[in-house]
Amino acid sequence: MHSLTIEWLEKAEGDFATAGREVRARKNPNYDSACFHAQQMAEKYLKAILQENLHHIPRTHNLLNLLALCLPFEPTLMAFQDALARLDRYAVRFRYPGESADRNEARMVYKLAKQFREFARNLPTLNS
To answer: What gap in Å lies between CA 88 and CA 6, rounded to an integer?
Structure first.
């Protein structure tokens, strides 16, 4: 595996850990942050796939655009199109005043991210 791919995966795992800590926090949980980091984890897994295939990595947070770029390398990712579309909303949704995540939403988003992570970790591209 390429060293930059490993770095993308390490960053993704950091985001996943942060999302999990915030979802489980008993004191002062930041559910907005949990949702954001869940989206970021998925984004970085997709970018790791692109990196491992030596594909240009665009400066975008759009998970569906990244998915489209990854499909030629990992067509089975299509099974997560709906989940990625849902996660995609959390790149910016709660970053500004006016709307906040609650515990139930953060748990749902984290669960989607966890399912995607488990799938992505077993892809041939990320197991070379």
So the answer is: 23
Structural domain of 61:
3-127
| Separation of alpha carbons 11 and 5, rounded Å | 10
User: Which pLDDT tens digit goes with each residue over 19-37?
Assistant: 999 999 999 999 999 999 9
What is the 3-state secondary structure of the chain?
Answer: CCHHHHHHHHHHHHHHHHHHHHHHCCCCCCHHHHHHHHHHHHHHHHHHHHHHCCCCCCCCCCHHHHHHHHCCCCHHHHHHHHHHHHHHHHHCCCCCCCCCCCHHHHHHHHHHHHHHHHHHHCCHHHHC
**The domain spanning residue 16 has which CATH number?**
1.20.120.330
CB count within 10 Å of CB 60 equals 13
The rounded distance, in Å, linking the Cα atoms of 126 and 128 is 6
Q: pLDDT per residue over 65-79, tens digit each?
A: 999 999 999 999 999
As for how many domains the chain has, the answer is: 1
Question: What's the CA gap between 23 and 55, in Å, rounded?
Answer: 33
